[in-house]
Amino acid sequence: MRKFFKKALKKFDKLGKDQIRDLLEDLSAENELLEVVLNSMTDGILVTDTTNRLIFHNRRSERLVPFSPGELEDSIIWEVVDDTDIADFIEQALLNAEKVNEEEFTIKIRGITKTLWLDIMPVVRDGSIQGNLFHVSDITERKKRDGRLRRAENLASLTTLAAGVAHEIKNPLGSIGIHIQLMQKSLRRDHILKEETAGKYLEILNEEVERLNNIIVDFLFAVRPMNPIMQKSDINKVISDLLEFVKFEMEEASVTIDCDFKQDLPKVDIDEKYIKQALLNIIKNSVAAMPDGGVIYFKTVEDEDLIHIYICDTGIGISEGNMSKIFEPYFTTKQFGSGLGLTVVYKIIKEHGGDIIIESVEGEGTTFTINLPVPQSDKRLLDWKG
Ligand SMILES: Nc1ncnc2c1ncn2[C@@H]1O[C@H](COP(=O)(O)OP(=O)(O)O)[C@@H](O)[C@H]1O
Ligand SMILES: [Mg+2]
Questions:
Q1: Tell me: the pLDDT tens digits for 90-132?
Q2: What domains does the chain contain, in order, with CATH numbers?
Q3: pLDDT digits (tens, 9 = 90+) for 9-51
Q4: Which of 25, 70, 247, 258 could form a disulfide with 297 if both were Cys (CB 3.0 to 4.6 A apart)?
Q5: Buried b / exposed e along 223-254 (16+ C-beta atoms within 10 A)
Q6: Which of 283, 284, 285 maximizes ligand 1 atoms within 8 Å of its Cβ, making it the mutation to test the pocket?
Q7: Burial 41-76 (b: 16+ CB within 10 A, else e)
């Protein structure tokens, strides 16, 4: 259409009265269409010229931008915005010719609080700046929705954890109750509690209290924010140290350890104490998955910006149905499992900016892959001598 008008303009002198009228009618129809489109938009659109005067604003913008009463067209835009924060921001951005992207404002219009996003971009025609385009969107609902989602997620995980704790403490509490009742019964019958009987009951009570304590300690570890102290470490050495520490336990369980360490790995920023805890939890699970013994294979690999640590076992594997649950707090298939081991592993690895992947084949074994980021400054230079 625009090409057609340009062509018509070139031949303007030769056009007859009727042709000019047709041309003007077409032009006005096109203009009307543009206006209808812009006025139907749910976002605010405003345009200023090179002197920062408002030359266009759509209907929606009047509901989103707090304008002062009076004439808007041809006014300096920041002088007609009735909100000091927004007005000052726009003035600064325009005077410094800054592009603005999703700047967030909270305003109160007719008693309702709204959150707005403002974009400002230059309008360029034939290589020169003709003014600025303002795009205002109302993100109040989206923000509310996001907040609700996040809250719901937090609540959900807290509810699972709390439900888990409630379930976990039921057994030891029940057992404590029963043993106290037994002691009372003995006392009522014999008026005395023999040392042997009392000792037996007290030992059980002690064990149950210890179990309760562990549940709470594990729970707190799972929900509390950690405070890792990162230090540059050689991951191969961290693994070797840990394996030295569990050597005897492995021998007892008839588990052989096999290592394939990539030499000269770049150092990673970790809190050794936590990473050892995570690796230990994984090793313990592997040992438990190999009741008749087997092999745990450790491998480290460097891959661009990551270090991969593979831990493979030849255990019973994990069923497909359980695969998605094993990181959930309190999920366990063991009679006396806490179900928190992998929850803690996950938390530790995430805290290190890493990732954890599992692959498993039932009856064959399981592989855990931990990916840890290599600090960029530590990436060795490529061999530039070629
Ligand atoms: N290496 C493994 N082989 C087979 N199953 C595993 C392995 N690691 C974890 N699992 C499964 O994941 C579950 C959750 O593990 P975890 O969170 O450490 O809790 P727990 O060891 O107390 O059961 C285990 O009960 C087990 O079913
Ligand atoms: Mg475990």
A1: 999 999 988 888 899 988 877 788 899 999 999 888 888 889 9
A2: 41-138 (3.30.450.20), 144-223 (1.10.287.130), 231-378 (3.30.565.10)
A3: 787 788 888 888 888 888 888 888 888 888 888 899 999 999 9
A4: 258
A5: eeeeeeeeeeebbbebbeebbeebeeebeebe
A6: 285
A7: eeebbbbbeeebbbebbbebbeebbbbeeeebeebe
How remote is the CA of residue 235 from the centroid of ligand 2, in Å? Answer: 22
pTM for this predicted structure:
0.56
94 ligand 1 Cβ < 6 A: no
**Ion ligand 2 contact residues with beta carbon within 5 A:** 285, 341
Taking the CA atoms of the chain, what radius of gyration do you get in angstroms?
A: 35
Question: Measured in angstroms, how far is the CA atom of residue 342 from the centroid of ligand 2?
Answer: 6
